[in-house]
Amino acid sequence: MQTFYLRNEKMSDFEHSFRHALLQWFRQSARDLPWRHNPSLYKTVVSEFMLQQTQVKTVLPYFERWMKIFPNFEALASAPVEAVLHAWAGLGYYARARHLQQTAQRFVQNPPRSYRDLLTCPGVGSYTAAAIASIAWNEPIAVVDGNVVRVLARVFNYSEIFTSKAAAIVWATPHAQRLLDKKHSGIFNEAMMELGAVVCTPMAPDCKHCPIRTLCKAFREHTVEICPHFHSTPHFKKTVNRLWILTNEALLLEPSRIGNKQLWELPKLTEERKVQFSNLKELFRAKRSITNTTYTEVVYQPHPLMNENRSEMFFEAPIFEGCRFVPIAELHTVALSGPHRRWIVRILEDGNTDKG
Ligand code: SF4
């Protein structure tokens, strides 16, 4: 086992210096974020759900809008699920929206009162529970995510290879818990997350302005760039083909088959569908990454659009089951996934499509 703290330095002195430097920096430099204005339990819960797997700058406009539509637990708990999904559309990982509403229902009916209670709420894992319990109730539980792992691995100059993110979190948790300022748990956790997000970043850490650089072993030993070490994960590539059927100013969409059936997407161009068309023209392609897979999404349009006496009736055949035409003017009323909404706008703006 490595000795993490510095030679001739007692852990208690180290802890004290670490907490003092971190909290002083955070009090002076914390970002002005909307959930930090007049903070409330509800704002903390909503922001923590939105920030799961999504960056702060993406969350900001959604959070402001959400607070106007659903200003408290009661409003969110009693809203139709369609309205909740619609307000969430574009943020991705839609199970979070359902879980957030179910958690709001718990807060209305039988409010959780501790970290342990929170762990029984839908969509709340140990990280989210620690963040909410410490920020809202000052419960002394350290948050540990990728940002916190990176800060701690560098501070202690941890040189072993992490085989996974989960293994890194297992390593970091006792260290984070020991460093936690138990009297100011919420603000300490926020400060740790903030430091990892804006100063101790993965590619270009700003060590020069880091409040804890004198305590950071990787900084002293010039190993910041290679710390932490992770096993490189295998990367997969997949291609997804889709159809663009625009006729009478209405676009054919189908319910999402990835997790949430109430989201709409451009229909998949399955082999079964492909054989129905004699000629297909590529309209658009885009790439996106989800976890360790890069997806190339290619959108095709039948060319010409309506040959062989095909009409809108044709798309009611069993192979298009569930699909429906949505007028372009009404697309804003439909819960589309964020990437699909962007692609549709791009394709319409490019104007290379055949009109049916
Ligand atoms: S000194 Fe650099 S590497 Fe160390 S914690 Fe600060 S930003 Fe991260």
In short:
The chain is an alpha/beta fold and 356 residues long. It has helices at residues 11-29, 41-51, 56-69, 73-78, 81-88, 95-109, 115-118, 126-137, 146-155, 165-179, 185-198, 217-220, 271-274, 338-350, and strands at residues 161-162, 229-230, 236-243, 246-247, 250-255, 264-265, 280-290, 293-302, 324-327.
Which CATH first-tier class of the largest domain would you pick? Mainly Alpha
Q: Work out the helicity level.
A: 40-55%
Work out the count of structural domains. Answer: 2
Number of strands: 9
Structure description:
The chain starts with 10 loop residues before the first helix and ends in a 6-residue tail after the last helix. It is globular. It has 356 residues and is an alpha/beta fold. α2 runs antiparallel to α8. Mean pLDDT is 87; it is low at 1-8. The protein has two domains: 11-230, Hypothetical protein, domain 2 (Endonuclease III, domain 1); 236-350, Nucleoside Triphosphate Pyrophosphohydrolase, CATH 3.90.79.10. The strands form three sheets. Strands 4, 5, 6 and 9 form a four-stranded antiparallel beta sheet that branches. The chain has a three-stranded mixed beta sheet with strand order 3-8-7, with no helix packed on it. β4 and β5 form a beta hairpin. 42% of the residues lie in helices and 13% in strands. It is built from 14 helices and nine strands. The structure holds iron/sulfur cluster (SF4). The site of iron/sulfur cluster has 15 residues, from α9 and α12. Iron/sulfur cluster binds at residues 151, 154-155, 199-200, 205-207, 210, 212-213, 216, 218-219, 224.
